[in-house]
């Protein structure tokens, strides 16, 4: 299993402060180390060399096996890799990015180049767009939905916006394909994310064991996603990104 932890590197510098901060998190997690630690959002006020040295320090202290980036731009990731090569430090191994049927540009157009050049893969999140890519909304907001929780007003506004309604209509258009493959739209959407080149893992957000089992069923759907099926999905979505001249 992959155990991960994210933090803002600037908040933990200098290095002597880093270890107690992470150790406190590991104690709360009841773990001796995590498989990967993520640097969340690149800080333009922190020199890249300091960030890379901080993450190298974390790994050398045995608190993590690898480090990755989260919500970084392709140029920032490349800078971190170059800095690691220059000073014999440890480079990032993956980028954590939002990716789903309606968020495609970064994972499909920007990150593949890094994957081919330096081997940086993608750990993607929100494969269901915070639940939008399901049939539970269908033009309304259920009382038991997370968007009714305090602090999620932004998502409720998104669901009820014109773009949100259009996206929900697209989800309904995908139902025949899901039925043809013998799966749910959620399983289809997760499998669609997994099929992308360079995607190492897809992070799932579930509220019950039953939901987790259902989402894991996407692994069986993945083998059924033929190029023809993917082309059909692209045709229905109408948002496949194209290289810019």
UniProtKB/TrEMBL annotation:
- Record keyword Ribosomal protein present: no
List the InterPro entries.
Answer: K_chnl_volt-dep_bsu_KCNAB, K_chnl_volt-dep_bsu_KCNAB-rel, K_chnl_volt-dep_bsu_KCNAB3, NAD(P)_OxRdtase_dom_sf, NADP_OxRdtase_dom
- State the source organism's domain of life: Eukaryota
Can you name this protein? Potassium voltage-gated channel subfamily A regulatory beta subunit 3
Molecular function (Gene Ontology), one example? oxidoreductase activity
Instruction: Give the protein family.
Output: Belongs to the shaker potassium channel beta subunit family.
* Coiled-coil blocks: none
* Pfam entry (one): Aldo_ket_red
Name its species.
Capra hircus (Goat)
In this protein, which residues make up the domain named NADP-dependent oxidoreductase? 22-236
Q: What processes in GO biological process is this protein linked to? A: regulation of potassium ion transmembrane transport
Q: Where in the cell is it found?
A: Cytoplasm
Chief subcellular site? cytoplasm
Q: Give the gene that encodes this protein.
A: KCNAB3
What PANTHER family does this protein map onto? HYPERKINETIC, ISOFORM M, VOLTAGE-GATED POTASSIUM CHANNEL SUBUNIT BETA-3
| UniProt keywords, alphabetically | Cytoplasm, Ion transport, NADP, Oxidoreductase, Potassium, Potassium transport, Transport
GO cellular component, as recorded: cytoplasm; voltage-gated potassium channel complex
């Amino acid at each position: 299993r992959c155990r991960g932890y994210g933090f803002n590197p600037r908040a933990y510098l200098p290095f002597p402060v880093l270890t107690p901060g992470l150790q406190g998190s590991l104690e709360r997690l009841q773990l001796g180390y995590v498989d990967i630690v993520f640097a969340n959002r690149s800080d333009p006020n922190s020199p890249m060399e300091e960030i890379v040295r901080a993450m190298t320090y974390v790994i050398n202290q045995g608190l993590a096996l690898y480090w990755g980036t989260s919500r970084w731009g392709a140029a920032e990731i490349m800078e971190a890799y170059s800095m690691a090569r220059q000073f014999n430090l440890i480079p990032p191994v993956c980028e954590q990015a939002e990716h789903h049927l309606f968020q495609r540009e970064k994972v499909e157009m920007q990150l593949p180049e890094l994957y081919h050049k330096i081997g940086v893969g993608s750990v993607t999140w929100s494969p269901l767009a915070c639940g939008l890519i399901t049939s539970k909304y269908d033009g309304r907001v259920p009382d038991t939905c997370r968007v009714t929780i305090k602090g999620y007003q932004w998502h409720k506004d998104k669901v009820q916006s014109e773009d949100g309604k259009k996206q929900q209509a697209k989800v309904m258009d995908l139902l025949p394909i899901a039925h043809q493959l013998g799966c749910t739209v959620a399983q289809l959407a997760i499998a669609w994310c997994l099929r992308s080149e360079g995607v190492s893992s897809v992070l799932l957000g579930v509220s019950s064991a039953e939901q987790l089992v259902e989402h894991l069923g996407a692994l069986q759907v993945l083998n059924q996603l033929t190029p023809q099926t993917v082309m059909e999905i692209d045709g229905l979505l109408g948002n496949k990104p194209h290289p810019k001249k």
